[in-house]
Amino acid sequence: MVLTRSEVGDGVRFGDLLIELATRKNNPVFIRLLIWHDDAASEFLMKNMPGYYGQSLSDMMSMSNGYYNKEHQKYNCEWFAKVISREFPKIHLATRLIASLTAIRSIKDEKVPENLSANVAKKYAAHHQKSIIIDYERKSRAIGYVMGHNCVTDFWDTANHIFQDPRRERFYKEPEQNSICNEESLRAKIMEQFFPEDEMRRRQKELNDFILRNTVVAKPYQDISCRISGSLLHDLNHNFCQAWKDSHRAGDLWERAVHVAFTPLRPITDAVDEKLHQSGKNYLEESRKNIRPEDLSHPSYPHSAQLLRTQPQYEEKTIKECYANLTRLMHNYMFIQNQYIQYEPWAELLMASIERKRKAGYLEPIYIFVITSTPERPGMDLPTYDVAKVIGYSEAMKVEHEETVKEVKKKKLDMPLDPVALSKNGINVLMGSMWTCSRDKKWLEPEDYEEIYIHAKVAIVDDVAFTIGSANLNVRSMAMDSELNLISQAADVAYDLRRKLFDQCLKVTSNAPYVGMRETYGEWMSEMKRNFSRMRAGGKLVGGLVSFYVDRKPADPVV
Q1: Which domains does the chain have, with CATH numbers?
Q2: In whole angstroms, what is the distance from residue 185 CA to residue 189 CA?
């Protein structure tokens, strides 16, 4: 990933920056990278380590999502090869997986689908945490990050989510070298000699047309991470050291093939791996054991926070508890922006908690803001619908809603709730997505709109508490995958975060802290419906908020 990008040129690649820090003459930095990796099958699906398997296999693994250009592919493959071969002694790369039996055991109390693809997926739990620790040994000067962001170039974007932003990654629809007339040859034609101005324009247009025909711009991405300091870093370090002990030294393709092919020899290969893995896996924890939480604190750090995990290896599900507690304690509003809204028990708990408040005499209106993306695969539609139906948005998923209506009529059951029905009990639910559009035309075509992919995982309650991290609102993140979140009652941070996210959705100034959401909710509902109508009529969007809507046949549900 190139971290800093502009119209005139790019900054330094993340990989080059790490090499620079690890090899500089004065004060070189020791860098430990821990990345989730199961096997080639998981890499083929997730593509979270592009280049790890070398050039040929990387091309094969790009088929479903598109190909990096040759420069990117070559760089990725060479970078991994150099790091794995220890060309840079101060960069240690390790991989992490979660055993299949552990993953299956962790979801035994969860409602999970039963079909072929789901049963395969149950065996693959992800080490999905995203965190960074910097200068831990410098104690009070150390910093860390609890993140939603991935470090893959596909995910680069700005907070403005500009339509077809040329700074975002471009993907080739087929390997660049297979194109009959590739980009490099077209550029060479332009530069090979002097041409009249008209001919230069024609050739430049030919190049631009080729790029537009053969590439796609990566989608806009919405994401959130949190920087932390102080004694909380003690827990962040413990989490990393624990994972480092359970990791495997990254090996080249031949080593990995032998490891898979000769399973009975794994105790031997693991022993060798242990010796090669930075003085043994216990080294890091031992070297930091004398740093206490109070050594990391500072008088200028005014907030308290706690780290939460889903960690099947240690039977931890505190992120699930966090969402449950935030939902129970909410009195005014709850704002959730999440990649996946697919955990039906949360929706049921939400409605049950509000009902208990009503029975206890609390009759104030409650506002629920849910912002998510169109499910990325049809296999995610039914789990999303399970939540949408409970919170009053059955009609937002056309095919599933029609099936439900047929079923309830046949069995003479109650029709699914809608937002109007819920509002009569003071439950005001909004479910929307984020979009951007071209500003160059008066009237737009369908291709002139882009959905902003929500990769963020954040929840804010009543301007007094929030959680940020890696966990989605689905079965995997609540029970199966390794996840890391932060929760805090820093009210000023909660309000500032909510204000920024609200402004991003509607481009208007948000209301003051700790006040009712009646006006905001009404404005959001009206504007997201108008934007939905504008999209259907070819009009330009106002802000980025659009009604959540899915109209396609769902596939067998996935895990």
Answers
A1: 14-160+221-296 (no CATH), 170-217 (no CATH), 305-547 (3.30.870.10)
A2: 6
